[in-house]
């Protein structure tokens, strides 16, 4: 732990929802929920207006609708979020060369590497205030909450204390005073299962955890977990800010509106997902040794199975064949609602002669499963997900308000316009198209819209 508050954690507030409110004037100040919009969807982000009704991340969309039926439920525009994130990360890197992104909407910054005249509280506080102002300026009004502390752990905790649009500075030497009254779940690694185990042991707060000896924690939670919690409960965290975080896995998964029961269809889907994973591996110059499938059954039971190969691979055929073999060991007769394929144990090399038979087969190895008509099972059609950017030949730019029964409803507005009118069209109206241009309107914040539907 440092003797200066030189670790900064920045967290963009309700990021996905905030980008939607920025780009859609009619939604500003109103409840917005971003995530899966179908019956089996999950909330990715809820605006603060929606959170007042109890909507939160990871909640099922069905429950979110019951809690806040008047919210705007949007499917998400990840290119727009990525563009906003890149603007923010560029500002962070302009402050310090040591920036550790955790996700699109949060990152650590090491101010000790920023070349500041000193690391006193007034100096680092001024830097944080200027940074928050710059984030709002370059993103067109998005806000960020910031924590400043002597370690990554305490800085992240601090950034949660004054949301949204807040700044919390923890002076060195006051970390334990801050942490002790907090619930034990603020500590990294204390999830629902660990929380319950600690509760049964009479541990509810960080102060309770601090009172346990190292031996007691090891007996309760195991050696690695016990040692980690023992240190965190005492605000001890020497983890450095790392500019490049190594990817641990590459995966693809899909959730289906209707339970899958056809094993051949499942194998076909896994094969297609394996191909996507392999493409991503090659695009990043990576390969992996461990293939994992994830299967969520009709009753929400989630199963995973893994197989480790002799050497790393980026071959779609090898990943697909392994995934199908893993599926064969599972009972899916009751129906499957989610399938996924992942590759971990990543490396930056591939043994060329690995599985020579598969190499000789080339792409045929990925298709050795009996052909399945995926297009018939999941037909491609012109879709209009809620929130998607569109353009009309007469009315100009807008976004999808909703669609169904052959009709798509659009609100015509942009980030730079006032709240706009609503119009409805036939779903196959040739004058209405998904918007794919990356050129912004004059005065508009630059975002990259979704590509055309496939």
UniProtKB/TrEMBL annotation:
Protein name: DNA polymerase IV
Sequence similarity: Belongs to the DNA polymerase type-Y family.
Domain of life: Bacteria
Matches recorded under InterPro entries: DNA/RNA_pol_sf, DNA_pol_Y-fam_lit_finger_sf, DNA_pol_Y-fam_little_finger, DNA_polymerase-Y, DNApol_IV, IMS_HHH_1, Rev_trsase/Diguanyl_cyclase, UmuC
Cited NCBIfam families: PRK02406.1 (NF002677), PRK03348.1 (NF002882)
Catalytic activity, as annotated: DNA(n) + a 2'-deoxyribonucleoside 5'-triphosphate = DNA(n+1) + diphosphate
Cofactor: binding comment: Binds 2 magnesium ions per subunit.
GO CC annotation: cytosol
Any one Gene Ontology molecular-function term assigned to this protein's record: magnesium ion binding
Organism of derivation: Nocardioides perillae
Subcellular location(s) per record: Cytoplasm
Active-site residues (renumbered): 106
Function noted in UniProt: Poorly processive, error-prone DNA polymerase involved in untargeted mutagenesis. Copies undamaged DNA at stalled replication forks, which arise in vivo from mismatched or misaligned primer ends. These misaligned primers can be extended by PolIV. Exhibits no 3'-5' exonuclease (proofreading) activity. May be involved in translesional synthesis, in conjunction with the beta clamp from PolIII.
Biased composition (Polar residues): 434-454
The protein's Enzyme Commission number: 2.7.7.7
Entry cofactors: Mg(2+)
GO biological processes: DNA repair; DNA-templated DNA replication; error-prone translesion synthesis; SOS response
Subunit structure: Monomer.
Keyword field: Cytoplasm, DNA damage, DNA repair, DNA replication, DNA-binding, DNA-directed DNA polymerase, Magnesium, Metal-binding, Mutator protein, Nucleotidyltransferase, Transferase
Binding site for Mg(2+): 11, 105
Domain UmuC span(s) in chain numbering: 7-191
Family matches, as HAMAP family: DNApol_IV (MF_01113)
